[in-house]
């Protein structure tokens, strides 16, 4: 069975922290971008993909310049859309509504926001279209968890057992098939 390496890299620390950053676009700090470049150093990638949000795409561009690889931007790798909560601090939200969301983001999405299953579906679609060669995707914590759900079968509650800080690198071995499946080979925070 054919397999390939897939590396998922969370963007570096954003300039605005402590907020529900889904579709809200803000840049990463210079140190956050540098941390991403450091993580990508010796992966031996042939394909470089990024979310189209600047906190991910700027890091991908820096990686691409360092490795002399072009970047493809794909909006399917965006973070979950937090709807009316997007760009707000968690402390400013109704704690009961926020708790229901964290416990079951599919049954209790943010007002006007995206359901967990919709995020998993769009990330699954992006995974199905990946070329079977060593790939790095610079993305977001939610999209990384959605990829684990799609490729490894983790349910939403299990996914919160993985800490994915800024610039965390999650490496997988992906096997061809319908659907594709994977094994985690490393998590570097």
Automatic annotation (TrEMBL):
<protein>
    <submittedName>
        <fullName>Alpha-ribazole phosphatase</fullName>
        <ecNumber>3.1.3.73</ecNumber>
    </submittedName>
</protein>
<dbReference type="GO" id="GO:0043755">
    <property type="term" value="F:alpha-ribazole phosphatase activity"/>
</dbReference>
<dbReference type="InterPro" id="IPR050275">
    <property type="entry name" value="PGM_Phosphatase"/>
</dbReference>
<dbReference type="Pfam" id="PF00300">
    <property type="entry name" value="His_Phos_1"/>
</dbReference>
<dbReference type="GO" id="GO:0005737">
    <property type="term" value="C:cytoplasm"/>
</dbReference>
<keyword id="KW-0378">Hydrolase</keyword>
<dbReference type="InterPro" id="IPR029033">
    <property type="entry name" value="His_PPase_superfam"/>
</dbReference>
<dbReference type="InterPro" id="IPR013078">
    <property type="entry name" value="His_Pase_superF_clade-1"/>
</dbReference>
């Amino acid at each position: 069975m054919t397999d390939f390496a897939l590396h998922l890299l969370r963007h570096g620390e954003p300039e605005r922290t402590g907020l529900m950053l889904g579709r809200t676009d803000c840049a990463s700090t210079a140190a956050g971008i540098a941390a991403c470049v450091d993580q990508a150093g010796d992966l031996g990638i042939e394909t470089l993909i990024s979310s189209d949000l600047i906190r991910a795409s700027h890091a991908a561009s820096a990686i691409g310049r360092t490795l002399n690889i072009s970047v493809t931007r794909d909006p399917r790798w965006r973070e979950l859309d937090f709807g009316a909560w997007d760009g707000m601090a968690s402390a400013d939200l109704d704690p009961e509504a926020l708790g229901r969301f964290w416990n079951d983001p599919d049954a209790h999405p943010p007002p006007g926001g995206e359901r967990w299953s919709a995020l998993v579906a769009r990330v699954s679609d992006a995974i199905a279209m990946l070329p079977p060669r060593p790939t790095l995707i610079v993305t977001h914590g939610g999209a990384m968890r959605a990829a684990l759900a799609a490729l490894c079968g983790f349910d939403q509650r299990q996914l919160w057992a993985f800490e994915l800080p800024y610039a965390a690198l999650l490496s997988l071995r992906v096997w061809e098939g319908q659907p594709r499946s994977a094994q985690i080979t490393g998590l570097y925070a």
